[in-house]
Amino acid sequence: MSESGKNNSHPGKGLNRRSFLKGMGTGIVGSATLSQGLLSAAPQGPTPSSKSQDITSATVTMTINGKRQSLEVEPRESLAHVLRERLQLTGTKIVCDRGECGACTVILNGRTVYSCMMLALEAEGARITTIEGLAVGEKLHPIQEAFVKHDALMCGYCTPGFELALKGLLDQNPNPNLQEIKRGLSGNICRCGTYPHIFNAALELAGGKGGK
Amino acid sequence: MAQWKPLEKMRYVAHDVPRTDGPAKVTGAAKYTADIVLPGMLYGMILRSPHAHAYVKNIDLSGAEKHPAVKAVLDMNKYTVRYYGDEVAAVAATSPELAEEALDLIKVQYELLPFVVTEEAAMAPGAPRIAEEGNVSWERAGDKAKVEQILAGSSHVVEADIRCQVQVHACLESHGAVAQWEGDKLKIWISTQGVHGCREDFATYFEIDQDKVEVICDYMGGGFGSKFPVGVEGQVAARLAKIAGLPVKLMLSRKEECLAVGNRPSANMKLKMGGDSQGKITALWQESNGTGGISGNAGFPMPYIFAVPEGAYYKKHAHVRINAGTERPFRAPGHPMSAFGTDIIVDMLAEKAGIDPLRFRLLNDPDQSRQKQYKIGAERIGWETRWNKVPGSGSTGKKRGVGIGAGRWGGGGARSTKVQVEIFPEGKVVVSTGTQDLGTGIRTLVHQVAADILGIPMSYVTPQIGRTIYPFSTGSGGSITTGSVTPAVNNACNTALTRLFEKVAPALGVDAGDLACEDGVIYAIADRSKSLKWKEATALLQGEVLNITDGWVEGLSSSGVAGCQFAEVEVDTETGRIKPLKYVAVQDFGLAVNTLTSRSQINGAIVMGISWCLSEDRTMDPKTGTMVNPNLESYKLSGPMEIPEIEVIIDHMPERGVIGLGEPPQVPVAGALANAVYNATGVRITRMPMTADVVLQALAKKGGA
């Protein structure tokens, strides 16, 4: 790797073979110039048309876990990113970053939403509950207690999303059966495959024990 | 040799014990690498090749370098990029959005080269050579002519074309690191299966002493074998941080995760198996290939599970290189493919020989544990009533059937494992070792074992893992973590307890060797009236912290496990949808330290196996050389709706000591499912993933035949 930085002037490590090979022209099939990185080359991906110098920040005011907060965000920042990186509410996870896995689930104005699919600015005035807002002090929420008791988590990365999805389900249907639980959680993915124990936790909470 | 305490003396080991870190995980308090936010932290991002194979003719970094938010730029100095997603350059900027913007400003001129992204294309005559070593490495065993002769003389011969596709690990926490330099010292949070291995890797990479590197992985979001090396992403994070003089977070995107950090190789096999008139296997013939991407490595062990007579096995296997990201170990490397092929061909031979597949296995499987397990599993799934004697003869429309699969695994333990035990005068005990918890529960196991060996409540003990400041522990792979760590915890706690007894024995007027500790009370074995509560005893340390480090000992762990699984499925012959209804898993792993987290492991392995068998498929486009589904939408993982009822039966053998469980239950899943689909429909599907279109085509083919 060779490198360049603003704060130092380390020489590149190792021989840069490119300059040596330039002009050799062996095995030419064609050539192409990369104008966009892979990430932005994806048709569904973000294509930032505006450059940083054009971007002005904006103020967004949200009530998060009962606390009203105003902060400056860039218009293109997702709600998930702002929760995680600016407010350090990192229980909200980013996994797929495009609304496929549910790890970023939060409850916004009473509904579960994928926070990676929303701009922070769209949450202006919203009431948001993240996983950090479920427990009251040291006292775990019944959903959290049930998850621990039934070992409804392994690596734990999907866990906050599943808990909030379950809260969303129980808030609407306090007494779901197994099939309704599966359907209610079907916007979330767990790679460790903890599902059977998540169902056990949910079934224990069915019948109004899911708390508020 | 050391021995475990008798089970009846243990309050936590061999019980259901909720995870020690459960509360931290359910509240969002657990900090994973991706969650680390440091003051002034930059965001690193990697520019990747949009081509499957090309020379990098020229790279112009100046646009990125001039960007006001960019603090570091790296050229990977690649002469050739060898797959779609290969690393080319990297930047660190003040936000992820700005880093992405800066990547757009890097101009790369490529000279395209011919590529291959399928096994067939790589092996075809005249295929472009994509690696100096050639596209194919051959692996051979046995004498083809001799084996064919045995087959010709066998009473029954069956053959099958089996396909196992490439599977990506899809860890929910992506690969990545947060790097921070303090002078010449590197502090790095990294999502890894081996903190100590990473320390060595970084020290080697930066040519510094290992004591200059501190690696931290308090929590990690899944690895499944893909997170041993520090990887390019780890190196780049540390390198960018060094250049910028600021901390850098570099976590891969979902797309990068699919392209560049490992996968389970494919396995395409043509198998022939012979049997005699008594139903004994006579020979196995195998011609196969598989790809592990650009490195080619794609092996799987055969013959598997069943005894094949000496000299009656022939193999010709091609490890095929293609222009795709390289393989990495993936939960029981090789074995799920071995089992899938074997379980199917054995099922076919049983039918040809007119023998119930359950009885056929009992006849041919030499493993005594599995002999017992097959019977347990068959009873639990209801084999006698649910197995269709004539496959596909059940009800019309939605058809049901059952099938069997089997697996084995090694495990074992690393002698190099060390554990530190500190007993504080106020009674608190801190047990530290540099292992890491992938989600398997080892933090909880350390906690349980320490409490039981010391004879005190778990609430007195704090386990500490996941950092190189703790004593050496090995990487978590091969299902050796439990077999490495818990014997060392056991031994270190015993040593610490002996030292504590020496301190308190005079106060009780007995010899240290005559003391024991149970339920938080230290007492003289011969006279229980001579006793001290734990905290009274530790108070006698008088300000001194008892601190010992000890290591792994023989006798507390072993290796080699057996398991079998029974699946019941329902196949909708109208839609082609396969619905697993029930799994019964019977699994041996010696002494089950935590029966609750063990059930989670087995559940999870079955879910992952179903997902592989029914829906996951890394799809490469032969025209463009790109992966067309690098996301979680079209690379489909099993979700809540696809989960069957799972019954776990722990074949408990505490006398064997501890043995790891992470990998073995992954092995039999797909074979059991394939055999159940056949039993339900009478149609043999031997290619994964068994998506609805594959099922419908197979059904139509049979209907038309």
Automatic annotation (TrEMBL), chain A:
Residues 1-20 are annotated as: Disordered. Gene3D superfamilies: 3.10.20.30, [2Fe-2S]-binding domain. Keywords: 2Fe-2S, Iron, Iron-sulfur, Metal-binding, Oxidoreductase. It comes from the Bacteria. Residues 58-134 form the 2Fe-2S ferredoxin-type domain. Signal peptide: none annotated. The keyword Oxidoreductase applies. GO terms for molecular function: 2 iron, 2 sulfur cluster binding; metal ion binding; oxidoreductase activity. This is 2Fe-2S ferredoxin-type domain-containing protein.
TrEMBL record, chain B:
Residues 27-114 form the Aldehyde oxidase/xanthine dehydrogenase a/b hammerhead domain. Residues 402-411 have a biased composition (Gly residues). Gene3D superfamilies: Aldehyde oxidase/xanthine dehydrogenase, a/b hammerhead, Aldehyde oxidase/xanthine dehydrogenase, molybdopterin binding domain. Keywords: Molybdenum, Oxidoreductase. This is Aldehyde oxidase/xanthine dehydrogenase a/b hammerhead domain-containing protein. PANTHER family: ALDEHYDE OXIDASE 1-RELATED, XANTHINE DEHYDROGENASE. One of its GO terms (molecular function) is oxidoreductase activity. The keyword Oxidoreductase applies. It comes from Candidatus Glassbacteria bacterium RIFCSPLOWO2_12_FULL_58_11. InterPro entries: Ald_Oxase/Xan_DH_a/b, Ald_Oxase/Xan_DH_a/b_sf, Ald_Oxase/xanthine_DH-like, AldOxase/xan_DH_MoCoBD1, AldOxase/xan_DH_MoCoBD2, AldOxase/xan_DH_Mopterin-bd_sf. Residues 387-411 are annotated as: Disordered.
